[in-house]
From TrEMBL:
All residue ranges annotated as the UvrD-like helicase ATP-binding domain in the record: 227-650
Keyword tags: ATP-binding, Helicase, Hydrolase, Nucleotide-binding
InterPro entries: DNA_helicase_UvrD/REP (IPR000212), P-loop_NTPase (IPR027417), UvrD-like_ATP-bd (IPR014016), UvrD-like_helicase_C (IPR027785)
Stated name of the protein: UvrD-like helicase ATP-binding domain-containing protein
GO biological process, one term: recombinational repair
Binding site for ATP: G248, G249, P250, G251, T252, G253, K254, T255
Keyword ATP-binding: yes
Record field: compositional bias (Low complexity): 346-373
PANTHER family attached to this UniProt entry: DNA 3'-5' HELICASE, UVRD / RECB / PCRA DNA HELICASE FAMILY MEMBER
GO cellular component: cytosol
Keyword Lipoprotein appears in the UniProt entry: no
């Protein structure tokens, strides 16, 4: 059943004066809470003051103690200050519980009422709990406010008239600063005559959910903490173990639920999750839209929200490839191509960060060597010549090729193979020098060999040769090397067809020879894969400079620098690829196979929450993406939830969108809209001047709604559409069809639907996304290609 707990609940029209009296009662409670908060702020300030004084003692112990105290007090003060505004939002009035046990928050723990709590449909309220963004206890440790994430707050969200538990009345309190503005009640046991302190329980208002949904939208998402619905609450509070998968149509609250879940997990187990929750979002626009939600829930800094194109440090994708190229770059076939490319790129100098390698010759010692890659500084040397024991020893192109092939034989990361290559080169030189024959005594032989190795391998020429012949490759460099169509077709043989090779190579020409230049969203997953395939070689740590505490602790003496052990290296590599404790994937249906691999690497030991809607997928091959998702999640058990109610679109808009859903995914059900506005979508037809039509429609909608207007255009029309709408103010936003994902506006114009649908194989699903962004008004503006009928209804949206 749909979780319309607030909408199903019984609502009573209150007699005059009741509302004011009830608001007054809540005001009194809020005043008490504020007095208590002020006391706590004084306590925190005192603690900081005291801690600062202790710091003056100056011993290392006192310093550490001061730091810890100041930190704790600072966090405390910060939380109190930031959550001071509007943090009390709910109240539940409860029957007597089955047992009389209280939890750590001071509330009774029983979910079910006592057998004798109700007699002849009459009952006395036994407990009243106020719910807020943080918990506040009074001086006697009785709860003034319960944290919304505490178990005692769950009935506020979960109780329905069908399963009310102990809840008789649920109240949403609206306040601003210190002032209570209003209350909205739902009666969950309408059959009861309940009393509180002898007086009959009052019921006020027409439902908090509807009040929340009717508000004008701004450019940022609001939290839904005061009106979370029962089916949403089940997801938010689901145990963190393994994988929680959530599916639901547009507007069912998936993004909101995912963010509230992050806050809930932090509350449940802060030690485990602090700093370790990653939220992967499809676009930077959605990141910007949602990033205020967690701070409004009192969680700042512990959760990283990153767009999928910004997951790799230092790589900010700001470009979209055309659909045919995205399909190639996102496909798991790329893995084979990249594996070949990292090995092949050793012969393409641009893949190295800076061309090294031109070695100078020298004949001034017992040994000299000469890396003869002289044609151009960046060329790979094809000969190595040393003078040893008075004679010349040379490795030619064939020798070097053989050594390289031997070293590259396995699947180890290419950048980590240089030590092995170096060893084989020295072996080959030694063997060619014939020196082994001169020593019959094995000890002398070993000594001579050691000397030979040390002498050669410390010479600058040899180091230069190695740097040129086996350069450290960078992911960007390899990507740039793939822009060479001839080379790419070698690496992609039997994986990509010639047309695909051409498209891929051409799209990478945006980058210069070292891979600098604008990256597309799909390039980023390739870079991440390349980084794994290449490996990050160990670099000895630079001695640390001026650590002020070093002389106090003596730690430097206790821990001298050592070379890295294999285990340390494994740990370091694991750390470098930041691994999160929990990964939340929003709009999961859009991740390509290569992106799943990238995200999977960030959650190898994580628990997961994955929210998405297959009907909104812009990826053309859901089966391939599904397989990559399975691989990223491994064998972890999964728990599935479905969200069934659309809180965003009025029924009139949802019905229209359902027509496209029926074309895009026949048989798929769209979620039930929770409200209707009575305003049907408007159909308009652009005359000869599309720009003027779009502008006119935008002006209409600006007059119709108080909040935002989103204009969704085909990806290729983004730049011109921005010009068409210039000067209309910041309530109007232009979006390419792929950028509309996850966002919402009070009013939306969908421009030339057929063009959006034709943009890619997943175009109909992309159009479905565009049609489901509006909370109040929708205008569909057709062009010629839409074949509109006399009413202006485009072919795609007719019955
Ligand atoms: N319980 C609720 N109370 C108030 N508003 C809600 C509730 N649930 C969802 N909403 C609102 O409904 C809108 C849609 O929510 P959200 O963006 O999380 O949905 P979604 O499932 O991620 O949608 P889409 O798949 O289309 O991106 C938001 O404005 C959100 O605040």
């Amino acid at each position: 059943m749909a979780a319309q707990n607030a909408t199903d609940a019984h609502v009573v029209t209150e007699p005059d004066g009741v509302r004011d009296r009830e608001i007054g009662a809540e005001q009194q409670h809020l005043d008490r809470v504020y007095r208590r908060l002020e006391e706590k702020i004084h306590e925190a300030e005192f603690l900081m003051d005291d801690a600062a004084k202790r710091g003056q003692v100056g011993t290392p112990g006192a310093l550490a103690e001061r730091d810890a105290q100041v930190f704790r007090a600072g966090v405390h003060l910060n939380r109190l200050n930031s959550e001071f505004e509007d943090f009390l939002f709910g109240r539940i009035d409860l029957l007597l519980g089955k047992d009389g046990k209280k939890g750590p928050d001071g509330a009774y723990t029983s979910v079910e009422p006592a057998d004798d709590a109700v007699r002849d449909d009459r009952a006395e309220i036994a407990e009243t709990l106020h719910i807020g963004r943080i918990g506040v206890l009074d001086a006697d440790y009785a709860p003034l406010v319960i944290d919304w994430r505490a178990p005692a707050a769950a009935p506020f969200y979960r109780s329905t008239p069908v399963a009310p538990g102990r809840v008789v009345r649920r109240r949403v309190i609206r306040s601003k600063g210190r002032k209570v503005l209003g209350v909205e009640d739902d009666l969950l046991r309408p059959e009861l005559t309940a009393t509180l302190g002898g007086a009959e329980l009052a019921v006020v208002g027409d439902g908090a959910l509807m009040a929340a949904l009717g508000q004008a939208r701004s450019h940022t998402m609001r939290d839904i903490v005061a009106s979370i619905q029962a089916e949403q609450d089940m997801v938010i509070r689901a145990p963190a173990a393994s994988v929680t998968e959530v599916e639901g149509g547009p507007g069912t609250g998936k993004t909101a639920v995912a963010l509230h879940r992050a806050a809930y997990l932090l509350y449940q187990d802060r030690r485990r999750y602090a700093g370790g929750i990653l939220v992967v979002s499809p676009t930077p626009l959605l990141v910007a839209y949602t990033e205020g939600v967690l701070p409004s829930l009192g969680e700042e800094g512990q959760v990283a929200i990153r767009a999928v194109g910004n997951l790799v440090d230092g790589a900010e994708a700001d470009t979209y490839d055309e659909p045919a190229v995205s399909r190639i770059k996102g496909s798991s076939r790329m893995l084979k191509v990249l594996r070949k490319a990292v090995r092949g790129a050793l012969d393409s100098p641009s893949a190295a960060p800076s061309p090294g390698g031109s070695a100078s010759s020298a004949d001034d010692g017992q040994l000299s060597l000469d890396g003869l890659g002289t044609a151009a500084p960046a060329d790979t040397p094809d000969r190595l010549r040393v003078v040893a024991f008075g004679g010349r020893v040379e490795l030619g192109a064939d020798d070097l090729r053989r050594i390289r092939q031997t070293v590259l034989g396995g699947t180890a990361p290419v950048n980590l193979l240089r030590p092995r290559a170096r060893r084989l080169i020295l072996d080959a030189l030694w063997s060619k020098s014939g020196a082994a024959k001169r020593y019959s005594d094995p000890e002398l032989l070993a000594e001579a060999r050691q000397g030979f190795d040390e002498d050669i391998s410390t010479e600058d020429y040899f180091l230069d040769f190695l740097a040129a012949w086996w350069p450290e490759l960078t992911p960007r460099g390899v990507l740039a090397a793939m822009a060479d169509e001839r080379r790419l077709s070698r690496w992609a043989r039997r994986v990509l067809n010639p047309r695909e090779v051409r498209l891929l190579a051409r799209s990478l020409k945006r980058l210069d020879e070292h891979g600098r230049g604008p990256l597309s969203v799909h390039d980023v997953a390739l870079l991440d894969e390349l980084e794994t395939l290449l490996g990050v070689p160990f670099r000895p740590k630079q001695p640390r400079e001026a650590d002020p505490l070093a002389h106090l602790t003596g730690l430097e003496e206790l821990m001298p620098e050592r070379s890295e052990t294999r285990r340390e290296r494994a740990e370091r590599l694991a750390l470098e690829r930041t691994d999160y404790a929990h990964v939340i994937v929003d709009e999961a249906q859009d991740l390509t196979p290569m992106q799943w691999r990238m995200v999977g690497r960030r959650g190898r030991t994580a628990t997961w929450t994955i929210v998405g809607d297959p009907a909104q997928s812009s990826w053309s091959d859901p089966d391939e993406a599904g397989a990559a998702r399975d691989e990223a999640l491994g064998t972890r058990p999964r728990r599935r939830f479905e969200l069934t109610v659309n809180y965003r679109n009025p029924a009139e808009i949802a019905e229209l969108a359902a027509k496209v859903l029926a074309l895009a995914m026949p048989g798929m059900r769209s979620p039930a809209a929770v409200r209707s506005t009575g305003v049907v979508p408007r159909f308009a037809v652009a005359g000869g001047d599309l720009a003027a039509s779009v502008r006119d429609e935008a002006l209409h909608l600006l007059a119709d709604v108080d909040g935002t207007v989103g204009v969704v255009v085909p990806m290729g029309r983004r730049a011109e559409a921005r010009r068409w709408l210039a000067g209309l103010g910041d309530r109007v936003v232009v979006l390419g069809s792929l950028e509309a994902k996850g966002l919402e506006y009070d009013a939306t114009i969908v421009v030339t639907p057929a063009e959006i649908a034709d943009e890619s194989p997943a175009g109909l699903r992309v159009l479905y996304v565009a049609l489901t962004r509006a909370t109040q008004r929708l205008t569909v503006l057709s062009g010629e290609r839409d074949d509109p009928d006399t009413e202006g209804v485009p072919d795609l949206l007719r019955d």
